Amino acid sequence: NGSGKLAGKRVVITAGPTREPIDPVRYISNHSSGKMGYALAVAARDAGARVILLSGPVNLPPPTGVEVRDVLTAEDLLQASSQAVDEGCDLFIATAAVADYRPRSLAGDKIKKSTETMELPLVRNPDTLATIAGRPDAPFTVGFAAETTDVADYAKDKLQRKKLRMIVANDVSVPGLGFNSDSNAVTVFWPEGQETLGPDTKTVIATRLVALIGDHLRQEEHE
Ligand code: PMT
Question: Where are the residues of the annotated region Phosphopantothenate--cysteine ligase (predicted)?
Answer without folding.
Answer: 11-223
